[in-house]
């Protein structure tokens, strides 16, 4: 429990550097217009005030009794009443980073003064960007500390109840912050893709929507039969797919000169698309291939395309992105393990998801593996939040100790039960 207090004190000292040394710098302020200043520092003053108030409440509890019996009631109270400022700060972090990068590149006076400020002993050789990240790191750290406290409480005790309440409230704040960040990135991504697409021979469709998000994109090879005097052979044509939660767009790169421009070939509503694996048989060209059927395309027609992925894992991930009514014999025979009867791995190095169907991992994350591929990709479910996705094999190590594996499951089950109990009340 003392770690909550000591880490909050350290965090508050670092926030004070950001507030007084950077935000309070008159020289730096003279290089900024009002809009850039607001984007760069966001609501850091409100975040600082919330941390200061929280720190004082923790100190008051210590004054009552040095042997602290519980502080999760304080965390719960402050999280419920004041921690919403973290949602605003995290949501604006994308704009903070972009504003900072632009100013460092285009505003020489700003860059010179910023570097001089960073050289101060107050910064302890840390760059400005490290201070920018502090609030999100702190709210995440508080959640981890609460989980640690909860694991050490007696079941059905008052301490377990307050820890569960605090965990549920802080978890909701983090979830909402991540949701807000996701929505902002989602809109930016849609606008970027809309600028890349060309509807030369098709009627253009509005792409940007608050309810739309990109789920997967990538290049595949379309297979078609080309006749000759000696029979037929397969012809391969590159095709680039954009898959959204409600829409499928098939495109071709415009040219080698403009590889980032795409000409739209066809599009359809996501619900009108079916996929099915293809048995390779004697034809090596059909390895990693699957058929994609559009029940009704932009012209109202039904069409089928034979597509080929580069690897087996790519094929599995594309097929999984389009839940089909039927599958190949191989898929139907594939065993899907229950959570309590599958391999378990622990993250050993950070992994940042590059596609929507991937899972970002942090060291110490524990994941139940539900599928493995020959190319070194795993699909799994993270125990802490039940998020599902793909990740590279080299980022994890298998938990081979059965005692440790069972303990991981019991701890995560208890955390989930405690949080669910509070949510349902």
UniProtKB/TrEMBL annotation:
Q: Name one Pfam family in it.
A: PH
Q: Where is the DH domain?
A: 1-180
Q: Where is the SH3 domain?
A: 340-401
User: Which top-rank group of organisms is this from?
Assistant: Eukaryota
Q: Does the keyword Protease apply?
A: no
Instruction: List each copy of the PH domain by range.
Output: 213-327
Which InterPro entries does this UniProt record tie to the protein? Answer: DBL_dom_sf, DH_dom, Ephexin-like, PH-like_dom_sf, PH_domain, PH_ephexin, SH3-like_dom_sf, SH3_domain
Keywords (alphabetical) are:
SH3 domain
What GO molecular function terms would the record report? guanyl-nucleotide exchange factor activity
Q: What is this protein called?
A: Rho guanine nucleotide exchange factor (GEF) 15
This chain's source organism reads: Electrophorus electricus (Electric eel)
Q: Gene encoding this polypeptide?
A: ARHGEF15
